[in-house]
Amino acid sequence: MPETQKRLFQEKTGATAAQMADLEIFRERLVEANAVMNLVGPDSLPDFWNRHAWDSAQLLAHAPTALTWADLGAGAGFPGVVLTILLKGRPGAHVWLVDSLGKRCRFLQSVVDELHLPATVLNGRAEAQSVTCDIVTARAVAPLDKLLGYAQPYFERGAQGLFLKGEKAESELIEARKSWQFEAELAPSQSDPRGRIVSIRRVRRVRPRP
Description:
The chain is an alpha/beta fold. The protein contains seven helices and seven strands. It has one domain: Rossmann fold (3-Layer(aba) Sandwich).
């Protein structure tokens, strides 16, 4: 089954042999690191190619010309490392991998170094970084109302948001509109029928009523 999923991933993404080799090394390093720290649920690792790799890679179809991305709460490298591998070799491509936990950043840095990826690992709070990018993204970091707060500085510098969300995406949008004004579009996830990709732009905080 993993080999079948791997072939399907390559067919759907058009990944090159070199990119697939990088992704396989990333998968191996994730398995090794996950044995000593909690990066992803261990039960999800056998489904790496669909649940993690394809879930991440599908974002590229929503912003095919975007070259610079910031992944907030990058954690195990989803979607950021997968995106970086698939963008590797494109002139001007760069991904910022932002995480507040040092041990996760050390894991991410080791992968970036080994695979010579066009990425910068930033250890700190997402909202404290001075990154300018085309797309700000995140997966499994926080409910949307909080996530927009983390991402607000990136929006102010011109970024669009593309966030991987689960089956509560619609209710999170309703809740977020209590504190924020924004334009949003929902698209179905290609990796999980329950999931949604939330596209966000023109974000500003709602002033509380006196």
